[in-house]
Amino acid sequence: MDASARLSAWLKDHPQNISKVVDIDTDTDRLLKLELTSANKELSIDILDNTDRFCAWVNQKLADNNCRYGIGGYMELRTIYDNRTQFDTTGEERRNLHLGVDIWGDAGTPVYAPLAGTIHSFQDNDNFGDYGPTIILTHNLGGLTLYSLYGHLSRANLVGLTVGQQIESGQQIANLGEVHENGNWAPHLHFQLMLDMEGKAGDYFGACRKSEKDKYLQNIPDPSILLQFPDGLVI
Which residue among 28, 36, 80, 190 is least enclosed by CB atoms within 10 Å? Predict the structure, then answer.
């Protein structure tokens, strides 16, 4: 049974334990699917290599479609990482298969814990193209340990945190960070789930090599299982 199936089995029996990750009004909000693969011909090298132009592209797509948020990315093969050095493996296969879900929105947008848990770790991954401020939570789901990662946050969100701190389901834990503090990205949340942190703290790969997909499917559940957006919400 892969990671997604194990998580899905628990969530099916415990729907009352699940809360939101961002504020969604299911009557008025729609989530725009943003594709960041080579198949998206709108994304020229000129846009991908320039943070300001990429931000403008994201904002224009959301405005044109009257959407507060964009979403996408789980197991998506991304060209956007080609100019980000931390995804380069020095002549070997690049890490460009995205392991989380991105939720694009305005800087300052509140971020919530979808499950009760504790703070596993946190740190500012302050490199160009990295997560920036990052929080990782631990959740005990009836004997199944799940970790949730929140990347590209505001630096202010790390102040006063302690490892082991209790977090309630639905509690606000962060905000989307500005470009200058979030790893130099258009404001968004990188939301990722792991069954095993593999000894890491404050960080975990957000992308892997395409050849490693089967391996990571055993450890990285599909976040949409937990996000549980209603049919028709994603356009």
Answer: 28
